[in-house]
Write the structure tokens for this entry.
Amino acid sequence: MSDDVFTLSGVSREYRSAQKTTLALDDVELTVRDGEFLVLLGPSGCGKSTLLEILAGLQRPDAGEVSFRGDPVTGPRAELGMVFQDPALFPWQPLLSNVAIGLELAGVPAKERERRALAELERVGLGGFARAYPHELSGGMQQRAGIARALAADPEVLLMDEPFGAVDHLTRLQLQEELLALWAERRRTVVFVTHDVGEAVYLADRIVVLSPRPGRIAREITVSAGRPRVHGDPELLARESDIYRVLREIEDPIEPPEWMI
Ligand SMILES: Nc1ncnc2c1ncn2[C@@H]1O[C@H](COP(=O)(O)OP(=O)(O)O)[C@@H](O)[C@H]1O
Ligand SMILES: [Mg+2]
């Protein structure tokens, strides 16, 4: 079997409205390899979420091919777990039911889903909060619950869209550590979207930098620092400055309005 989880070739996606057309992705070629931690990085609006949703089968490209382990992606599939910036837990349900929701949809019997949901909550350090409601938890804890929910179905691939974007910096560092520990334990493939350069180099084996308008792959950067990663490692700092250089190159020129010209 091939080592590639996803293969994308010539992928383009356009959003059309009455006023304008936005070319969100233009001719994207990308391979996601088995077991890697891949980061999609780029400024806001460069098409990161669109690309992730195409991988997830939540959106179809207008052109190009997307395959998952050699099969065309035609819709969402059980092998993929999604984590969003807002975990969107159901406020009227305790954590255990929130985490078990995917298993319920998959028809797993009640006892079994409770057991698995509890095991996932324990794994993310929330074992004592199974009966708590989302509003009783901090933002970081809610995000952990979102990760537990995605992991409960034991997906082969975790697709994460700026999952730590809404928590404070120290919590974010802690969640990064926890995610790396989970990843090291299970060695699943992760595709992680962020616009934070420090976060990208700390987590990634490989970083794909996207440029905006239209969204294209500007550069691929491999981070070869060993693991566990150490903040301030010279290799990480060197890759950070590579990325800042690329980001400066792809910066949108700010065009003056017509009346000024
Ligand atoms: N549903 C939509 N309708 C119209 N335009 C959209 C829609 N979703 C995204 N876009 C536009 O497509 C581009 C890429 O968006 P997105 O994939 O969300 O980027 P990112 O996640 O990198 O911020 C942006 O210019 C955005 O405004
Ligand atoms: Mg986005």
Summary: The CA atoms of residues 15 and 22 lie 5 Å apart. The longest strand covers residues 4-16. Residues 15, 17, 22, 24, 42, 44-50 surround adenosine-5'-diphosphate (ligand 1) (CB under 6 Å).
